[in-house]
Design a protein that fits this description.
The structure is a single chain. Helices cover about 40% and strands about 20% of the residues. It contains 15 helices and 14 strands. Strand 13 (about 365-370) and strand 14 (about 375-380) form a beta hairpin. It is of the alpha/beta class. The longest helix has 25 residues, at about 295-320. An eight-stranded mixed sheet has the order 5-4-3-2-1-6-8-7, sandwiched between helices. A six-stranded mixed sheet has the order 11-10-9-12-14-13, sandwiched between helices. It starts with a strand and ends in a 7-residue tail after the last helix. It folds into two domains: about 1-150, 2-Layer Sandwich (Nucleotidyltransferase, domain 5); about 180-385, ATPase, nucleotide binding domain (Nucleotidyltransferase, domain 5). The chain has helices at about 60-70, 105-115, 125-135, 155-160, 165-170, 180-195, 245-255, 260-270, 275-280, 285-290, 295-320, 330-335, 335-345, 355-360, 385-400, and strands at about 1-10, 15-20, 25-30, 40-45, 50-55, 85-90, 105, 145, 205-210, 215-220, 220-225, 325-330, 365-370, 375-380. Helix 10 (about 285-290) packs across helix 11. The model has no long low-confidence stretch (mean pLDDT about 95). The structure holds adenosine-5'-diphosphate (ADP). Adenosine-5'-diphosphate binds next to helix 10 and helix 12. Adenosine-5'-diphosphate binds near residues 210, 211 and 283.
Length: about 400
């Protein structure tokens, strides 16, 4: 079975073509700057063949059309024709309360996705564009939607509710949803496998640390809490997002600086976080270099960054009533030995015996970072959201076939 996984953003499309029998990525790439000057497509095939295609790409549909052309081309292609594609899996950011797992896309699902647009006005519309484009280009191929929010739908009400007037929850669906669900799900599953345990018997804290960052508490295989909320701005300090903030700070600033809603929104989403504190960059490598060279605000930013993660780990261990494993993932979690060691420093009381030697210099590789007898294990697990999307897509198709459904689009 061959599956295309699509992750459509406002001006970009990331894609991978999976062969599910061998679990190999036959080709992957990205379409960038859609609708802008200087659009291009980069494609890389499993054998290392690389293609860069430059030229105007006006919208998502033409971007995907070019990608399908590349995937089936004689010179740079990976398949001989579209018939070889069994299904398409889409990353969809917000499924609201309507979706607690991945689903086959039907007209009814599209209507429900459109109802979720208010909750993710920047993300869901381009996700839908990708779905519509595929429906137009490959109308006979089933499509599946895999949600960032779905994994966290198992949170209990006392964890997902905000203490605002209850009718506002009912009216607008204001509650914690959480994001990065496919990543938290993948790394918790993989982490349990790596130590030969069953995630259903474990209490795991997963730290997804990229430009966006979130922590999840996963008890007996299900998410019981996570640090991002109604929107991705809550929780950890991120590249440009503030994370947790006294709400009074925002209203105070709006008053003092006479900020309108849109400027206030930009302030907490784009100008805060590590960029705002350090004034150096939102990119962790640049901040670390600045700190190393003596920049005091960069040092402060890093201390704040690590402290916030540590606080979340402590509170989630309490929320679960114990802890068996901490997992680091995302660009920073996978690549920065410094971040990992600074976060676990001071957490020995939880039962962590960290192996600093093994951690030293480790980048982008699966590894257990604690000593043999450590009661709580600490792991690095590089995330693979695309694989989860491809697997869910395959599972849904196979289930339907097994139940004898004819898939009719
Ligand atoms: P996104 O959330 O956009 O997918 P990534 O998961 O790719 O982002 O993470 C990007 C972040 O990872 C950047 O801040 C980058 O500096 C950081 N990063 C990548 N490699 C390293 C490294 N070796 N040390 C520290 N940070 C790193």
């Amino acid at each position: 079975m061959k599956i295309i996984v699509l992750n459509c953003g406002s001006s970009s499309i990331k894609y991978q073509l999976f062969d599910m029998a061998s679990r190999q990525v036959l080709a992957k790439g990205v379409v960038e700057k859609i609708g802008l000057h200087g659009s291009f497509i980069k494609n890389e095939r499993i054998d290392g063949d690389k293609l860069l295609l430059e030229g105007d790409i006006y919208d998502h549909q033409s971007g995907i059309e070019y990608v399908l052309g590349i995937l089936t081309s004689v010179k740079h292609g990976s398949i001989s024709n579209f018939e070889e594609i069994d299904a398409v899996g889409h990353r969809v950011v917000h499924g609201g309360e309507k979706f607690n797992s991945s689903v086959l896309i039907t007209d009814e699902v599209i209507r429900m996705l459109e109802e979720c647009i208010d909750l993710a006005p920047l993300h869901n519309p381009p996700n839908l564009k990708g779905i519509f484009a595929m429906q137009a280009l490959l109308p006979n191929i089933p499509q599946v939607s895999v949600f960032d929010t779905a994994f966290h739908q198992t949170m209990p009400d006392y964890a997902y509710m905000y203490a605002i007037p209850f009718p506002l929850y009912k009216k607008y669906g204001i509650r914690r949803y959480g994001f990065h669900g496919t990543s938290h799900r993948y790394v918790s599953q993989r982490g349990a496998e790596m130590v030969g345990m069953n995630k259903k018997d474990m209490k795991i804290i997963t730290c997804h640390l990229g430009n966006g960052a979130s922590v999840a508490a996963i008890s007996n295989g299900v998410s019981i809490d996570t640090s991002m909320g109604l929107t991705p701005v809550e929780g950890l300090i991120m590249g440009t997002r503030s994370g947790d903030l006294d709400l009074g700070v925002l209203t105070y600033l709006m008053m003092k600086e006479e900020l309108d809603i849109s400027t206030a929104n930009t302030l907490i989403n784009k100008h805060s976080g590590m960029l705002g504190i350090t004034g150096v960059s939102s990119d962790m490598r640049e901040i670390m270099t600045a700190a190393y060279e003596g920049n005091e605000r960069a040092k402060l930013g890093l201390n704040m960054y690590h402290y916030r993660i540590r606080k979340y780990i402590g509170s989630y261990a309490a929320a679960m009533g114990g802890l068996d494993m901490i997992i680091f993932t995302g660009g920073i979690g996978e690549n920065s030995d410094y971040t990992r060691s600074e976060v676990v420093k001071g957490l020995e009381f939880l039962g962590i015996d960290f192996d600093y030697d093994r951690n030293n210099g480790l980048r982008g590789e699966e590894m257990v970072l604690t000593k043999e007898h450590s009661r709580v294990k600490v792991l690095v697990v590089p995330t693979n959201e695309e694989l989860i999307i491809a697997q869910d897509t395959m599972d849904i198709l196979e289930n339907m076939k097994n139940q004898g459904y004819k898939i009719d689009y």
